Amino acid sequence: MATSPYFAAARRRRPAGPGLVRAAVQVIASLAIVAGITFIGYRVIRVNATTAGFAYLVAILAVASSWGLVESLAASLAAVLCFNFFFLPPLLTLTVADPQNWAALLAFLATSVIASQLSARAKQRTREALRRQQDMERLYALSRSILLAHTEEDVAHGIARQIAQVFGFSAAALYDRSTGAIHHTGPEDVPEIDDRLHEAALKGTLFRDADAETVVTAIRLGGEPIGALALRGELPSDTVLQALANLAAIGLEKARAQEAANRADAARESQDLKSTLLDALAHEFKTPLTSMKAATSALLSGVVAEPRARQDLIAVVNEEIDQLNRLVTEAVHVARIEAGDIQLDRARQPLPPILAASLHTLESTIEGREVKVDLEPDLPEVNVDGDLTVLALRQLLDNALRYSPRGSPITLRAARREQHVVIRVSDHGPGVPLSELSRIFDKFYRGSNARGTYGTGMGLAIAREIAHAQGGEIWLEKTSSEGSEFCFSLPIGAEGGAP
Description:
By secondary structure, this protein is α+β, with helices and mostly antiparallel strands.
C-alpha cells in the first residue's frame, strides 16, 4: 500500500543503523566460530574429516537457534569452504580429488542449510507463540480495566490511554462519533490523523501504513460504525486490532449507559422525568448484555486459552446475569410502587436468612470489601414479605457500598426495639449534605454525591415504600463527613401466626 500523504509529514525515521550493526556483528561472530573450530580441528587436535563435519554441523545449529537464518547460512557457507580446504584431500586447496568427497561435501552443505532453515523456522514459531500469548494477556488486562473502570475521567480518553499503556503504542487516538470529539494520548502527537479517523467512522474503512507504523480502524457496535481508533507503534495483528476495536466499542457503550442513567438527575424536575428514567433503565439493561456478549465472544473465538482467564470471563457472565435479574426485579417493583399496588406475602420468619440473602445479591459488589454483621442475641422472628424485605435491605447496602471508599468497612447491625427489629446500615462515606436531607427518600432523586456513579434514584424510595407497606419505618439516623447510618424497622411476628 502506498504511503498516504496524511502521514508523509509525520512519518517516523526508524534508525536502521543499530539493527544492521547488530546483524553484522552476529555474522562476524558466526564466521569466527567456524574459524575457531577449523583452527582447533586442523592445528590443535588434528581431527579427521568426519569429526570436523559433525563439529561444523553442531555449530551451525547453535548459530541458527541463537541468532537466525542469515547468520546460520553464512556459517554454513564458511564451514563448507573450510571443510573442503582443510579436511578433504587434496588438503589446502579448494579442489576435490575423490568423487565420493564431492557427494559428501554436497550432502554436508544441504544438511547445513536445511538444518538452519528448520531451526530458524522453529525459533520463529516460538516467537509467534510468545507474541500471541503476550497479546492475549494484554487483551485480558485491557478488557478487565475497561469493564471494571469507575472513574471521573472522560471515558473515551481513558480507553485510548489504557490501550496505549497496555500495548505500548507511541500514540493512540479515539474518535467518538456521538460527541464528535477526538481524544489523543501517548508520547507522540499525531493531529494529522484526524481526517482518517473521520473517514473510518463514516465509511467503516481500515487504513494501514506499515512504513509509518500507523493503523486506523472503525469501531463498530451492532454492525454500525460508532467511532474510530488510530494506533502508532508496532502494528498489531488483524485479530488483535479487531479485539481492540470491540473493547473500545464496549467501553463507549458502557459509558453511554451510565450517562443515560445519570441524565435522570437533570430531568428530575421536568415532566419528562419518567421517560428519562425508562431510558436509563434500558441502558442499564444493555450494559450487562454488552459485557456478556464480549465475554462469550472471547470464549467462543478461542482467543482466550488459559483456564484462569476463561474462568474469569465466565465469572463476568455470571455476575452480569445476576445484575440483569436484579434490574428486572427492581423494574417490576418500581412499576407496582408507582401504581400503588404493593402485594405482600407476609410470614413469620427469622431475620438472619433475610440479611444473608440481601448480602448475597451484592456478592460481586462486596468482593474485597469488609462487611461487619452484628446481631443482637435471640432476635425474635419478623412478620414480613421476605422477597420485598431483601430488596429493601439491598437498596440500603448498595447505597452504602456505592458512596463509601472501597477500603472502608460497612457495618450491619440489628437489635430489638419494642415491637420492631431495627436494622442499621453504617458506612464511612462523605455523608449527606444538610441541604438534601429532606429529599433523599424522594423518587428519582440523586444527590450531589452521586456524580460519577450509575443509578436511577429509586433505591431509597423503594426501601421506604416497602417499609411503610409492612408497618415499619426507614430513616437517616445520623450523617457527617465521616459517614452515614440508615435505619430500617420491621414488625415482630405475633404469637400464633401473622395478623
